[in-house]
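Input C-alpha cells:
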C-alpha cells in the first residue's frame, strides 16, 4: 500500500484530483478541495490513504497525517464512504472536525454538502472520543468560510470557486487576470480549468 508520496503537482482538476509526478510516474490523487489551494508550488508531500475495491484502486492524499487519520476514522462511521469523508475534510480539517464533534456542533456539520441531519447525528454519536489524536483545544483549525456573495460574471464566478477551493483571494484574482484576455464566450468550467492551469 502507498502511504506517502513526495513529488510535483503537474495537473489539478475541478473534482479535487491532482496528478503528482514522482520519479517520472504520475499518480492521480484525490485531495480535499479546502487543502488543494494551500498546497505549495514546487515539491509537495502528501500522506496517502490507499483505497482498494474490486473495481478500483484509488489514492487519497492529505497535507498532514492528522487529516489522513481523520479520513480513516470517518470511513469507520456507518454510511460514510470515501467521497463523503473527503467532502467533510474539504470543509473542515482534522482539528476543526475534532472541535466540531467535541462541541456537538450540528449547525456547522450540516453545512457540508452531502451531509444531512441523520448523518450528522450518526457522526456525533460514533466519533465521540475517536478524534483524540487531534489537539482539539487549539483555535487554529480551518472552518467553513462564510458564503461568498454571488459574483456578476464568469470570471468573477471562477475566482469565487477558486477561493472556495482554498486559494487565497489574491491568488484567485491573479489566476483569473492571467486568462482574462481570452475569456470571452467561455463557460465558468472552461475558465476554471484555465485558471487552475495558470496557477499550477
Amino acid at each position: 500500500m502507498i502511504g506517502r508520496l513526495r513529488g510535483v503537482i503537474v495537473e489539478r482538476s475541478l473534482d479535487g484530483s491532482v496528478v503528482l509526478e514522482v520519479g517520472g510516474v504520475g499518480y492521480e490523487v484525490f485531495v480535499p478541495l479546502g487543502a488543494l489551494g494551500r498546497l505549495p508550488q514546487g515539491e509537495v508531500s502528501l500522506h496517502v490513504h490507499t483505497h482498494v475495491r474490486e473495481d478500483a484502486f484509488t489514492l487519497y492524499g492529505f497535507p498532514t497525517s492528522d487529516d489522513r487519520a481523520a479520513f480513516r476514522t470517518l470511513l469507520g462511521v456507518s454510511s460514510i464512504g470515501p467521497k463523503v469523508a473527503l467532502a467533510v475534510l474539504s470543509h473542515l480539517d482534522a482539528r476543526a472536525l475534532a472541535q466540531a464533534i467535541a462541541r456537538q456542533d450540528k449547525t456547522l456539520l450540516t453545512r457540508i454538502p452531502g451531509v444531512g441531519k441523520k448523518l450528522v447525528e450518526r457522526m456525533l454519536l460514533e466519533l465521540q472520543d475517536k478524534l483524540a489524536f487531534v489537539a482539539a483545544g487549539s483555535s487554529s483549525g480551518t472552518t467553513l468560510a462564510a458564503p461568498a456573495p454571488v459574483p456578476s460574471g464568469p470570471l468573477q464566478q471562477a475566482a469565487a470557486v477558486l477561493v472556495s477551493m482554498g486559494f487565497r483571494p489574491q491568488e484567485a484574482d491573479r489566476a483569473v487576470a492571467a486568462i482574462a484576455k481570452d475569456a470571452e464566450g467561455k463557460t465558468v468550467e472552461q475558465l476554471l480549468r484555465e485558471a487552475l492551469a495558470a496557477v499550477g
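DSSP finds nine helices and five strands in the chain. The domain at 4-62 is CATH 2.40.50.140 (OB fold (Dihydrolipoamide Acetyltransferase, E2P)).
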